[in-house]
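Hi support team,

I'm opening this ticket because the web form for multi-chain structure prediction keeps timing out on my end. I have pasted the exact lines I submitted so you can reproduce it. The total is 174 residues across two entries, so I didn't expect it to be a heavy job. Is there a limit I'm missing, or should I split the entries? Thanks in advance, R.K.
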Amino acid sequence: MFVILVYDTAAERNPKVLKTCRKYLHWTQRSVFQGELSAAQYRALMGALTTIINPAHDSIVTYTAREPGLVRSATLGLELGGPGEIL
Amino acid sequence: MFVILVYDTAAERNPKVLKTCRKYLHWTQRSVFQGELSAAQYRALMGALTTIINPAHDSIVTYTAREPGLVRSATLGLELGGPGEIL
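Hello R.K., no limit was hit. The queue was backed up. Here is the completed structure from your submission:
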């Protein structure tokens, strides 16, 4: 499945959130990752993030589509993302 | 169409970006909006944002799907968004 993940987490937890998201997805932009995952990988990512975030203060939203072809992406301005991008 | 918009813009331009996005979409989370737009509304929003951002420094990414039903959203932690949410 195609996954877009956006996170709004406390600064002290951002490094762990970033590290975990990077294992599964490509960084797109500040606070945004995207990529293709199997259902099992998606569950593993959600499980790992659940152990990192504080659910009373942090928020992670995912958007998933069965296939990448169902979602079109477009960029205005800088094209920031890419698998090798350094934050 | 269903639209997810994420922005990474310079602080001094954020108020204008926010104001423009709010005219068309619902705020979801820090830097993220979503909603349903016609093709004409989407073009109008992109046109308005083009006049606001500095393409050498700012980045706005949109993900669009023909129908909202093609994209599932899920939240870990806080449910921040909502049409009435105040930033």
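A quick check on our side: The first strand of chain B starts at residue 2 and ends at 8. Let us know if the file doesn't open in your viewer.
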